[in-house]
Design goal:
The chain is mainly α. The protein is about 65% helix and about 5% strand. The protein is built from 6 helices and 2 strands. Helix 5 packs across helix 6 (about 80-110).
């Protein structure tokens, strides 16, 4: 009585990730990164928020949440913040190329 899975079941939901927007408090809870550290990283230009007028209600998309997790991981490994930021910039470039190719592949198969 096993369930059969189709390619559709295994496909990555790119539309969901594109729409995923999370407030700073939720990001802090999910990632374990204090909100003041998230704000500092944004001030340094490492991440960016979809902040409304007046700097209130900082909200982050999937890409920036992923950056935060990578920064945290690299800092835990002993990298400096500047070295982490540079490494992430390079890594995200490769990730974006890969996701773009995957998105194009899954779109063509439909």
């Amino acid at each position: 009585m096993g369930t059969s899975m189709t390619n559709e079941d295994l496909s990555f939901d790119f539309d969901f990730l594109d729409k995923l927007i999370v407030g700073i408090g939720e990001v802090s809870q999910i990632t374990g990164i204090p909100t003041r550290q998230i704000r500092y990283w944004e001030d340094k230009g490492i991440i960016s928020s979809l902040t409304e007028e007046g700097g209130k209600n900082r909200r982050y998309d999937y890409k920036n949440i992923k950056k935060m997790l990578l920064v945290k991981e690299l800092l835990d490994e002993g990298y400096t913040l500047d070295a982490s930021a540079e490494k992430i910039k390079n890594r995200l470039g490769m990730i974006e190329q890969t996701l773009s190719r995957l998105k194009n592949t899954t779109t063509k198969k439909r």
